[in-house]
Design brief:
This protein has 186 residues and is of the alpha/beta class. Helix content is 30%, strand content 15%.
């Protein structure tokens, strides 16, 4: 994670950027690793509050899975509630791990007022939100959810493209862009 600071004439807008929280990831099948991911998430939340950033930008994979368990879900809610109580917006996109075919967890959190899903209409943040607009700096953020590569290499999936002479048609290519993201560690 890092905080990007964009200078304005009065006060700069401060963002805390993070990603790949992977809540619920029991790496190596060890509960200790699941706790590590949880603690790292709370560390980021507390850093955002301590520094009083203007927003937290999360670039996807809040959860390790599109079907998080109750522990991961309650950890996410607790963290987002702490941010909301501190009046810090949580801005995010859908990652390759936590995306589902249709509805998204992020939309559920947005409906609760705990998150904003970044998209093609910009989300504007101004420093000194309550103060005089003259001299305040402004940042507008846009988001793009995880997109599967349109033409994965045959060896990358192991399940398709075994026939070397099979040329991908344009219809195949466009349908690939809409399939549910494959599970891929990153
Ligand atoms: Mn990830």
């Amino acid at each position: 994670m890092y905080a990007a600071e964009l200078r304005g004439s009065n006060r700069m807008v401060t963002l805390l950027h993070t990603a790949d929280t992977h809540l619920g990831y029991r790496q190596y099948h060890r509960p200790e690793r699941e706790a590590d991911f949880r603690e790292a998430f709370y560390e980021v939340i507390e850093a955002a509050i301590a520094r009083d950033v203007d927003a937290v930008v999360h670039a996807g994979d809040l959860f390790n899975s599109s079907r998080p368990g109750i522990d991961a879900l309650s950890d996410a809610l607790e963290g987002l509630k702490r941010l909301a109580a501190a009046d810090i917006p949580f801005l995010s996109i859908v990652g390759n791990h936590d995306g589902t075919r249709d509805r998204q967890w992020l939309d559920v959190f947005a409906s609760l007022g705990l998150a904003t899903r970044l998209g093609e209409s910009g989300f504007s943040i101004r420093s000194d939100e309550d103060g005089d607009e003259t001299g305040a700096s402004r940042v507008v953020l846009y988001g793009l959810d995880h997109v599967e590569p349109a033409s994965p290499s045959p060896t990358a999936t192991g399940t398709r493209g075994r026939s070397a002479d099979r040329a991908p048609s344009s219809s195949t290519r466009s349908s690939r862009a809409t399939i549910t993201p494959i599970r891929r560690r990153s």
